[in-house]
Inverse folding.
């Protein structure tokens, strides 16, 4: 009897989970050979986190700050461990198989759990989990190295499922599940995905409330809603440390409010709308949900078998190949389309015809909302409404990412539909009508583009329609793109028709469930697998030795590392403010991060960019170091940040900047200003060692007159460096104002003079300033943000409480089951 019970209760789950792992491992088979996935974002992470990781290993503590990029910034959104969060250990255990295997495997398991929460047949749930997890977007983001996003998507499904389970079946059990999955979702630390998940939950809640009113179960709805406040509190308390530090940092980051007076129409709080909507999905591009090659695919060159390649070869112009992408949409570029699969799309449309009840409406509403928001600047009035009215929406960029909601809702509705068909919840007559309707809509749409591909547009991007491309080339590009659209539309039509036939044969009892499910899974895999391989294939993996060689120091790196002093580096051989490679070995002026400090970004936009343009122009005509030095003297922003080395060629020694102002110096003059705008605007015009200080800091300075004492014998210099602790020695004949080439960040940095706390202030828009008394003193800056340490205490308490509540509920269920068996 026990064996029978195991087979009936657990065997489907064991088989499904084994199948999930098998599919994932086979897809990412290079990992079995010890190869590593080489992606831009992984490289960025390794480079930007190196100082943090080395500090952790050397000192056994979290540095919480890093100087590796943008002159210095908190480490919270790069790599920070929160020891109070005990659930993090479970999260690490779930990621046993590492990226990318763990990401897709957990996505499959997560969606499987979601469908079980909805009460689906385990075999249908297994097929649905595979279909959802093979969505092209998941593989594209892994190919780009967006690992935190992938794990947030993986936990999103069971989180939403637990909420639905609470309202529909068991509020207490669902609340406990919700506490765990929300904790894991927040640990993934991709708040944009979490925010989109909450948008979907909000639409579910509204729909559930409407139906509860109609069905006279409002009391039960509000009772469950009240219960679900508890798991929210638990999950937030578990993640309180990382949420508090992130919230604190957000006020000073690009997501926070600027102190600058903005021109009319510019947003001073949150992201600029032009920046946020730079990646907006084209309205017609939405057809990629059904036809992956509708807009050409990824921004990758045409293949050697293409007409475009042959045209270039025949005209001796192959050097232009890499500048001609197959993608011809309106986005600046893309790693691939959002394709949910023809089978999934067909099931979704079928559900719109035959399903009844709240699930159809909230999933349809969430899908439509997702698409409208993804259009961004292509539906600007709608985007502006959300950015100006909906709390938190203006904190996120790349609005095309909202399509993760549609990617979630479409397969969910599709497999709820399939489950309803299998369980006989819909009459055979209604299913047949639905099949006809779904086939006409989906098949008719696909057939239209097969016969008349020109309906998709010109097959030239807005950047290619300016007449600069010769006719012989544009004709070849149009032919290639048209063929790709036709081929993909045809393959989608085949899969849609096969799905319709499979369901028809099932309801006519010509095929049994035990045969239907394997056939369906097979069709899903052969639909999605080849499309995903276009964008995430074995070429993305490299041997470990080759991966490690990509971090080998260049000639310039080695020369800089030979200097024991702490200096900053400007790398002109890469995209300075969009590349993190310099951060691997040096304290970089640039870097890559989506949430850098707002003041630093404002300094880049207003001052640094102009300085770099002038300097690179001078560099082009310079014959040697001597010729370039006059241009270095005018790099006020870079000099005050102690930019000692400038890399212009990685395989050549760097330029040495004699005007770099060192780690600290005494101000020769104080320029008082009233506003942040004045403070920023004055930077290009100050002379060496001058300070710019806002009037609000006059009490901190304590010197009312312009500093006149410029005794050359007064000295201040760095004696000890750690990421979170800087120690200086000073010697002065009178009270002096010192400036430090470190980023001012008030939420955690504390200054000490001879171990006595001292108030420091902001100077030169981003630097730290401190009044130092006459004589010899030790000055220390220590980064110990209370948000981190207090937050960890709350996280520890929340973690223990969640574990105890779950264990207690498990004991109650165990005893109840034993009593029932007796």
């Amino acid at each position: 009897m026990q064996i029978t019970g195991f087979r009936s209760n657990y065997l489907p789950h064991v088989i499904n989970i084994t199948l999930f792992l098998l599919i994932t491992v086979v897809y990412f088979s290079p990992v079995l050979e010890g190869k590593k996935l080489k992606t831009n974002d992984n490289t960025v992470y390794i480079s930007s986190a190196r100082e943090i990781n080395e500090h952790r290993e050397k000192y056994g503590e979290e540095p919480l700050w890093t100087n590796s990029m943008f002159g210095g910034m908190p480490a919270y959104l790069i790599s920070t461990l929160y020891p109070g969060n005990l659930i993090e250990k479970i999260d690490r255990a779930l990621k046993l198989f590492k990226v990318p295997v763990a990401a897709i495997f957990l996505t499959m398991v997560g969606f499987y759990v979601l469908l079980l929460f909805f009460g689906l047949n385990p075999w249908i749930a297994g097929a649905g989990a595979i279909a959802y997890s093979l969505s092209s977007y998941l593989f594209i983001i892994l190919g780009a190295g967006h690992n935190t996003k992938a794990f947030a998507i993986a936990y999103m499904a069971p989180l939403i499922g637990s909420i639905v389970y609470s309202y529909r079946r068991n509020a207490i059990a669902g609340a406990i599940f919700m506490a765990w999955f929300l904790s894991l979702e927040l640990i993934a630390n991709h708040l944009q995905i979490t925010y989109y998940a909450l948008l979907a939950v909000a639409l579910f809640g509204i729909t559930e409330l409407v139906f509860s009113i109609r069905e006279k179960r409002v009391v039960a709805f509000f009772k469950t809603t009240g219960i679900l406040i508890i798991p929210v509190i638990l999950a937030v308390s578990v993640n309180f440390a990382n949420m508090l530090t992130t919230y604190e940092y957000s006020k000073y980051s690009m997501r926070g409010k600027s102190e600058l007076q903005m021109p009319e129409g510019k947003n001073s709080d949150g992201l600029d709308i032009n920046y946020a909507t730079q990646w907006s999905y084209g309205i017609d591009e939405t057809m990629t949900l059904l036809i992956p090659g509708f807009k050409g695919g990824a921004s990758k060159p045409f293949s050697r078998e293409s007409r475009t390649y042959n045209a270039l070869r025949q005209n001796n112009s192959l050097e232009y190949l890499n500048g001609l992408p197959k993608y011809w949409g309106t986005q600046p570029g893309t790693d691939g389309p959002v394709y949910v699969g023809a089978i999934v799309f067909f099931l979704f449309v079928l559900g719109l015809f035959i399903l009844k009840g709240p699930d159809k409406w909230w999933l349809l509403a969430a899908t439509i909302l997702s698409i409208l928001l993804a259009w961004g600047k292509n539906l600007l009035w709608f985007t502006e409404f959300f950015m100006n009215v909906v709390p938190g929406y203006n904190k996120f960029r790349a609005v095309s990412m909202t399509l993760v909601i549609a990617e979630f809702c479409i397969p969910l509705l599709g497999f709820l539909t399939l489950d309803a068909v299998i369980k006989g919840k819909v009459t055979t007559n209604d299913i047949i009508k639905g099949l006809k309707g779904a086939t006409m809509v989906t098949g008719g749409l696909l057939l239209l583009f097969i016969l008349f591909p020109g309906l998709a547009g010109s097959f030239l991007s807005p950047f290619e329609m300016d007449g600069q491309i010769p006719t012989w080339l544009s004709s070849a590009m149009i032919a290639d793109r048209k063929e790709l659209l036709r081929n993909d539309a045809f393959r989608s039509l085949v899969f849609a028709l096969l799905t319709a036939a499979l369901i028809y044969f099932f309801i006519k009892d010509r095929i049994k469930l035990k045969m239907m499910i394997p056939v369906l899974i097979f069709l899903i895999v052969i639909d999605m697998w080849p499309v995903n391989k276009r964008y995430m294939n074995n070429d993305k993996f490299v041997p470990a030795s080759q991966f490690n060689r990509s971090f080998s120091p260049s000639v310039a790196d080695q020369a800089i590392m030979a200097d024991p002093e702490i200096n900053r580096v400007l790398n002109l051989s890469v995209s300075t403010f969009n590349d993190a490679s310099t951060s691997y070995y040096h304290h970089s002026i640039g870097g890559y991060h989506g949430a850098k400090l707002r003041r630093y970004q404002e300094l880049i936009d207003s001052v640094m960019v102009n300085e770099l343009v002038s300097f690179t122009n001078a560099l082009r005509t310079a014959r040697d170091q001597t010729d370039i030095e006059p241009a270095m003297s005018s790099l006020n922003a870079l000099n005050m940040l102690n930019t000692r080395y400038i890399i212009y060629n990685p395989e050549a020694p760097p330029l040495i900047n004699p005007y770099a102002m060192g780690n600290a110096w005494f101000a020769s003059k104080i320029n008082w200003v009233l506003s942040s705008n004045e403070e920023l605007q004055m930077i290009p015009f100050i002379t060496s060692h001058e300070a710019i200080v806002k009037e609000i800091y006059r009490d901190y300075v304590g010197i009312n007159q312009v500093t006149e004492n410029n005794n050359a014998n007064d000295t201040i210099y760095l004696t000890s460096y750690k990421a979170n602790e800087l120690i200086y020695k000073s010697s002065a004949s009178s009270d002096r104002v010192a400036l430090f080439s470190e980023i001012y960040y008030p939420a955690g940095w504390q200054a000490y003079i001879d171990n006595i706390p001292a108030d420091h202030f902001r100077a030169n828009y981003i630097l730290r300033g401190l009044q130092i008394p006459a004589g010899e003193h030790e000055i220390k800056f220590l980064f110990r943000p209370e948000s981190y340490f207090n937050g960890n205490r709350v996280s520890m308490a929340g973690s223990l409480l969640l574990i105890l509540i779950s264990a207690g509920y498990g004991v109650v269920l165990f005893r109840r089951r034993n009593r029932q068996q007796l």
Notes: Confidence is low (pLDDT under 50) at residues 1-7, 704-708. Residues 1-35+82-250+786-822 form one domain. The two ends are 16 Å apart (CA to CA).
